[in-house]
Automatic annotation (TrEMBL):
Cellular component GO terms, alphabetical: cyclin-dependent protein kinase holoenzyme complex; nucleus
Region annotation Disordered: where it falls in the sequence: 59-86, 522-641
Domain Protein kinase: 137-421
Name of the protein: Serine/threonine-protein kinase
Positions bound to ATP: K166
GO terms, molecular function: ATP binding; RNA polymerase II CTD heptapeptide repeat kinase activity
SMART domains on file: S_TKc
InterPro entries named in the record: CDK (IPR050108), Kinase-like_dom_sf (IPR011009), Prot_kinase_dom (IPR000719), Protein_kinase_ATP_BS (IPR017441), Ser/Thr_kinase_AS (IPR008271)
Residue ranges with Basic and acidic residues bias: 59-69, 601-622
GO biological process: positive regulation of transcription elongation by RNA polymerase II
Annotated organism of origin: Heracleum sosnowskyi
Superkingdom of the organism of origin: Eukaryota
Amino acid sequence: MGCVNSKKATTTTLTTTIAKPKTPPHVIIQSHLDWTLKSISGSFRQIGNTGTLEKIEEKEEPEKDHDQETAVLVPQNEDSRHLSKPSLSSRWTSSFSITYGGRFAQAENVAAGWPPWLCDVAAETVMGWAPLKFDKFQKLEKIGQGTYSSVYRARDVETGKIVALKKVRFNNFRPDSVRFMAREIIILRRLDHPNIMKLEGIIASKFSCIIYLVFEYMDHDLAGLLSCPDIKFTEEQIKCFMRQLLCGIEHCHSQGVMHRDVKTANILVNNEGILKIADFGLANFTVTNNREPLTSRVVTLWYRPPELILGSTDYGEFVDLWSVGCVFAELFTGKPLLKGKTEGEQLHKIFKLCGTPPDEYWKRFKHPLPAMFKPRHHYECMLAQRCNEFPKTAVSLIESFLSYEPHMRGTASSALNSEYFSSIPYACDPSSLPKYPPNKEINAKLREDARRTKSYRMLITSGALRNQGRVRRPLLESTTWERKQEVEAYIYAVPRINGGCARPKGDRDSLKSSIDVVSEASQVGPVTEMSQVSSTHSVPFPAASSGFASERRRKQGSAPSRLDTKRTLKNQTASVLDPTSVLHAENNFSSNSQDSNINSRRVETTSRRSEENLKLVKPRERIRPHRYNSFNWSDFDSPEN
Ligand SMILES: Nc1ncnc2c1ncn2[C@@H]1O[C@H](COP(=O)(O)OP(=O)(O)OP(=O)(O)O)[C@@H](O)[C@H]1O
């Protein structure tokens, strides 16, 4: 990696500090009119004031104290404005000038070998770094699959060091897509803590829309470990994981970053017992000037706090603490605490576990519709009963994490100072944790798929499905990850086989794709009476893909399936829309410019996937129209739910 050493500009003079580069500097700019630029590819001189570079002979420059170095940076656009927070971080530059400083940064990045599509849009992302070459690594097997990325184990061919390469897909022709990807990198560069995944480098393709993030390799994630029937953590081990998790979260929050996707699959552990928080793809800054509304469509459903499900667009780092509470309970039981299949069901599960929220709770929401989510029955808080086998101090910590009032959740620091950590048994030393065989979410999924495929095969053998014409043999023969997804999509499309959905990996997918599909469709879709009535409000109603209809159907006796989502998507594209979801999508799209990149970047993959999945559904099932215009608590308010 390279590092900017010094830079002067005459037009703009905002000064930020670049502290502690981990690698020697490569780029030196002397003045804005007469400057040289030194990168790994050589030294360059500007010809006149044209911005054209001329290669010059290498010249020795005295190394400066990096902690003292300054750079000229000014926000370039809305996105980078949100990214700039010099006051919160002394560690990394955080803005960018469109004047001389900007051109310097751009030229500097181009000279360092970064592709122009990245330098033009998000120069600050890679500033001071030089790109790594792809042939530096030998790609080994795939170890993770995310919504918009794939993760591979790889070996550094020179050093033999094992790393993780996260291949991120996006559209490099869409600046918002690039900026969204850039935010993850900027946040990762800002954070520096033993319990946060460290970004070691970036490989950027010159022309294609692919970037590889190079991370240190971690042997496990907590989702993988917890899915192993043989692994049961002791109290000391849980305390050890929780302490590390909270230390990492404390660091994020102290740097003004909220993770917004804390879940067991994003908590990695290595064989030395060190835990690191990964996946900052949805992370954002907590404090920004003139803050725009945030999107509520973040955090994987099972770990999502109620205020986000209810559509809050003004929230802070407290959302992470709810997720931490869910992870905490999962460490004890080995199972997710709140496994809703849809947003409505998730909310209902929360109410049943944490009790009905008080009346004041509903008043905070600006929109009238959350009130319709008020449960008809009063639920008492059942947390203590549900966690009766956990240590008392753990229960009270979980109770505070799972508070409806975000500020009652405390902070990561207060949790670290709680009685839970100061009481016996103390957290074990990370190095004393057992060394497990590599175990990740992907392994857990493959195990689950194998199990599901096996039971599917048994059904086929018994003739139960063949008679219904539902067998697609070739799909089941496949073992690759992509084919695996097709298998999964098909199996989900066959009702009553598995009795429901497994881990809602598709949650983010389906939500995001539905947002986009709906948003797209809303431009051509019919304006119904309801949409006209409610159009004065920005309605935080779950998108149609959250499938309240599926709950109704389940209640009526049929098993839920991903078909609901597919039908919904199909219906949406066919302009048969739930008006409230259109409004929600509009709300999130138009007003949440800060976060709209999330959708634009990720939806391309997901909507493609949705289309692929649709192909697997029989045409007769696809064209059946559905309308999801109402929500009724009676769908949930029964003892069996
Ligand atoms: N540094 C790493 N070392 C080992 N495995 C990793 C590493 N980073 C990620 N993984 C694996 O890859 C999986 C997906 O990674 P990550 O969460 O970063 O991708 P993502 O596309 O953002 O996923 P999602 O859409 O689920 O949030 C993780 O659950 C983990 O199992």
